[in-house]
Amino acid sequence: MGLGEPKVVTTATHDLPETVDRQLRELKIEADRPLLISDADEVLFAFMVGFEAYMEGRGAYFDWVSYRLNGNIRRKLDHAPLPVSEVRDLLEGFFRDQTRSLLPIAGAAAALGELSRRMQVVVLSNVPHDRHGDRRHALVRHGMDYPLIANRGSKGPAVKALAARTAAAVVFIDDSPGHHREVAELAPHVQRIHFVGNERLSGLLEPAEHSHVRAQSWDDIRSHIERHLDGRDD
Hints:
Blueprint: H1 18-26, E1 35-38, H2 47-56, E2 60-62, E3 73-75, H3 84-98, H4 108-115, E4 120-125, H5 132-141, E5 148-150, H6 156-163, E6 170-174, H7 177-186, E7 191-195, H8 199-202, E8 213-215, H9 218-229
Parallel strand pairs: 1-4, 1-6, 4-5, 6-7, 7-8
Antiparallel strand pairs: 2-3
């Protein structure tokens, strides 16, 4: 999650950051095999469960008023919202200390394992670049040993670049409506699935306007993708 929309304050630029471009150039994509591009926090990993526990130990809590961090993270002492700078510091500390230990979303590893029989899988996460190794460690630890791109800002450019490298179907999964909007603009042929792993958090957010479907579980995601690959879209 981020300060405004979930996990990211979107940028206006459609350029790829240099660190992201370099990771993409090093990634092998098969030109004739379907591609699944998945977010990590609240899609593969239970971000909010871990972040709430982290805040608890630092005198803060999440107010559960809306799907954003800025304004919803408050001090336990006086219930005042933390300034943006303190929220950023809290997030930086959380990713530094807890990226390796986040628990997986139920069903994610099993569903990806089944889907990977038919698709190549790439994890596209706005985890800080210096935490790339920690996120890879967590993915492997929980049976999701797939390539990871540590993105920054908008995901539209990275999805566009990845989708351009295969002639087969491409599917994108993310919890952020902003990312779905960006992908719809830059790579409209990509099938977009909106999914929020935390049920309480999911209840604060309407289905993303620019997604094709809102999934409620990884069973939903797997079924939808299989129908899409078979040409049986609802």
